[in-house]
Amino acid sequence: MCGNTRGFFKRMLPFLATFAVGIFIASFFVSISGPNFRGRGWGGRHQEMKRLRLENEMLRNENLRLKNQMETEAWVPMDVPTVSHDHFSNHGPEVPVEGPPPPPPVRKIRK
């Protein structure tokens, strides 16, 4: 009976030691204590969601107002000078433009 207990402790001791070291290391990165429910809680989240909904509604209304304003106002382009094709003629040397190179020849694969 005593040998059975000793074997159990021999197997469990490394596991428990590793587990304890893991918990110790994790405690540096993660808070082991439970969440704090006394802070904002449900009421704070509810107010935040309400505020975000109101803000989204205001932004939607402003977007609609701006779209309507753009549609009602006549869009008049600014005075953009027009340039004719003749304006660019006789400015610099004429350079002939070559066509694209011919495609490479097709190679036959011999088996």
Feature tags:
111 residues, mainly alpha, 51% helix, flat
State the gist of this model.
With 111 residues, the chain is mainly alpha-helical. The chain has two helices and no strands.
Explain what the structure shows.
By secondary structure, the chain is an all-alpha fold. Helix content is 51%, strand content 0%. The longest helix is centred in the middle third of the chain and has 32 residues. The radius of gyration is 39 Å and the shape is flat. The two termini are 78 Å apart. The mean pLDDT is 79.
Beta-strand proportion = under 5%
Secondary-structure content class: mainly alpha
Largest sheet report: none
Helical stretch tally: 2
Give the tally of β-strands.
0
Layout of secondary structure:
Blueprint lengths: L1 H25 L14 H32 L39
